[in-house]
Amino acid sequence: MFRLQTENINIGYGEHLIVKDLTVEIPDKKITTIIGSNGCGKSTLLKAITRIIAHESGTVILDGEDISKQDTKKLAKKMAILPQTPESTNGLTVGELVSYGRFPYQSGFGRLKKRDYEMIEWALEVTGTIEYRFRPVDALSGGQRQRVWIAMALAQETEIIFLDEPTTYLDMAHQLEVLELLQKLNEEQERTIVMVLHDLNQAARFADYIIALKDGQIVQSGNCESVITHNVLKEVFHIDAEIGEDPRTGKPMCITYNLMKEEKQQ
Amino acid sequence: MIHPTLIKKQRIVLCLLAVLIILTVMISMGIGDAALSYDRILPTLFGAGSFKESFILFSIRLPRIIITVLAGMALALSGAILQGLTRNDLADPGIIGINSGAGVAVAIFFLFYPVQSGTFVYLLPVVAFIGAFLTALLIYIFSYEKKQPLNPTRMIIIGVGFSLALSGIMIVLISSQERAKVSFIAKWLAGNIWGTDWPFILAILPWLLIFIPYALYKANRLNILALNEPVAIGVGVAVKKERLLLLFTAVALAASAVSVTGGIAFVGLMAPHIAKSLVGPRNQLFIPVAILLGGWLLLIADTIGRNLVSPDGIPAGIVVALIGAPYFMYLLLRK
C-alpha cells in the first residue's frame, strides 16, 4: 500500500521544468532516500510533495486525496518536514522553536497543553538538545542547530517525516547519530521517512528504498542492491564507481570512483 | 518555553507604560489655550465643574486626547504587524502607501466636493479610509504573482513606488487650487489631529476593539511567519491566507487612524521597534507594549505640538517626525 504518491507531476519555475512528468510511489513505513546530482530536482521534488512549492501540473496524492485540496493544518499532522532552515531565528529559545512544531495541534491563542509539553520534551530528549532548552537557537553551533530543527519536525508527531539533507553541517559522528535516530523512529514507531542524501554509502546503509533522479526523472528505483550499481551511478552522476560490500552491514558501498573520462573527451 | 524573567519584565514594562499614559493624559488635560487648572480636573471629570470647565474638558481636550491615544495605538499595531509580515524592521504603514492614498482621496474630496458643513466632516474620514484601502488593494494586486505566495519585498518596493507617485499626484492636484483649501490639505498631510469630536472616537474604537485581540490571537502565526516560508508551511500555517488576513488588519487599523489624524508617519515604525528592543521579538509579548507605546508617543507629540505655537499649534505628525527622523537615522546607521 502506498499512502503517498505523485502522478505525472511537473514542477518548475516558469518555463523551465525541473521535474518532468514524474510518477513515484513512496513505500509506507519504510525509509526512502532520494539521490542524484546537484540540480537534478531531488530537493524540488521533496518541496513539491510537502506543498512548500506549487507544481505546474499533475497531482500529489496522500491517503487517496490530492494534497492541494487538503487542509494545510491537517496535512501538518500527517507529514512534517525539515526544510532549508532560516539563518536567524530572532533570538528564539530552543524550547520555543521546538514548540512551533505543535502548531497544527493548537487552537485559540496557542496555549500549550499537557500533550504538547510531553511531545516537546520527547523531541528535545531524542535529539539530545534538552540541555539547551532555554538557550537562543542562534547561539548554538551548526550541528546543534540542525538537531534542534529536527526536534521541531519530530514534535509535529507525524507518521511521515521529510528531511532535506539532514546531515549537512554535522560531523561524522553526529551524521550517524541523526540517521540512527531516524532508523529507530522507523523501526520502533513505524514512521515513514523520506530524505534527500548526498552520501551514497549512507543512503545504501539506511534506506529501504532508493530513488535515483537525473534531470527530473527516475533513472532507477528500488532497494539499495538494485540502485547502488556501477551502471546506475554512471548514468546518474557520470562517475565510474567501484562498488563493494560494506564489511559490517553487508550493504553495497561505493569504495572509490573516478569521473567518466572517455565521455568528457567526446 | 520563554524564560519566566522575560515575561515578568514585559509585565513591568506594560505597567510602567500604563502609568506614563495616565500621567501624560492628566498633564495634557491641564494645558492649553483656555485655562483649566489642575486642581479642577478631577472635580470636572466627575461632573462638579462649571459649564466652561466641563466644555473645555469634555468637548475640547478629552476627545482630542482619546482620539490621539487610540490613533497612536492603531498605527503602532499596524506597524508591528507589517514589520512581522515583511520581515523588515523598517516597515511602516506609510510604506505601503496608506498615508499618501488617504491623502489623495482627501485632496480630491476636499477640492471637488461642495463643502456643506453638516455632512462634510463626517464624510472625510470615510473618504480617507476608502483612499487608503484602495491604495493598499492596488499595491497588493501589483505585487501578486500567480501561484506564488505574496512576496513581502516586492510589496514594499511597489508600495514605496505608489507612495511617491501618489504624492506627486497630490502636488499636481493642489497646486492649481486656492490658498484656503490648500492650507487645510497641507495641514492634513502633516498629521494634524483634526477629528476631535466624540463621533470620531466611535469611528476608530471598534477597529481597535476587534483587531487588538485578533492580532494577539494571531501572534503565534506571526512568530512562525517571521522564520521563513518553508518552515511556516511545514508546520501547517496557511501562509497565503494568513498574510492576506494580517495585511487587511494592518491596513484597516492604519486607515482608521489616518482618517481622523491625517498623515502621521514614524509612530508605526518607532513604537514596535522600541517595544522589540525592550521585551524581545516575540509577537505575543511586544505587541501589547508597542500598542501602549504608540498611544503614548502620539499623545506626547500632540500635547507638545498643540501648545508650542499659538493659536493653531504644530501638527502632531511634525512633532513625531522631529522625534522619529533621528531615530530612523540611528536605526539605519546602526545597521
UniProtKB/TrEMBL annotation, chain A:
Gene Ontology cellular component annotations, sorted alphabetically: plasma membrane
Keyword set, alphabetical order: ATP-binding, Cell membrane, Ion transport, Iron, Iron transport, Membrane, Nucleotide-binding, Transport
CDD domains: ABC_Iron-Siderophores_B12_Hemin
Domain ABC transporter: 4-240
Pfam families linked: ABC_tran (PF00005)
Gene3D superfamilies: P-loop containing nucleotide triphosphate hydrolases
Cellular location(s): Cell membrane
GO molecular-function term, one example from the UniProt record: ATP hydrolysis activity
Topology within the bilayer: Peripheral membrane protein
BP-aspect Gene Ontology terms: iron ion transport
SUPFAM superfamilies in alphabetical order: P-loop containing nucleoside triphosphate hydrolases
Organism domain of life: Bacteria
PANTHER family reported for this sequence: IRON(3+)-HYDROXAMATE IMPORT ATP-BINDING PROTEIN FHUC
Protein name: Iron complex transport system ATP-binding protein
From TrEMBL, chain B:
Transmembrane stretches, start-end: 12-35, 55-82, 94-113, 119-143, 155-174, 198-217, 245-271, 283-301, 313-333
Tagged with keyword Cell membrane: yes
GO molecular function: transmembrane transporter activity
Protein name listed in UniProt: Iron complex transport system permease protein
Key words of the record: Cell membrane, Membrane, Transmembrane, Transmembrane helix, Transport
Protein source organism: Oceanobacillus polygoni
Pfam families: FecCD
Record flagged with keyword Repeat: no
Database matches in Gene3D superfamilies: ABC transporter involved in vitamin B12 uptake, BtuC
Domain of life: Bacteria
UniProt-annotated location(s): Cell membrane
Family listed: Belongs to the binding-protein-dependent transport system permease family. FecCD subfamily.
Coiled coil, from the record: none
Principal localisation: membrane
GO biological process: siderophore-iron import into cell
Cellular component GO terms, alphabetical: plasma membrane
Membrane topology category: Multi-pass membrane protein
InterPro entries per record: ABC_BtuC-like (IPR037294), ABC_transptr_permease_BtuC (IPR000522)
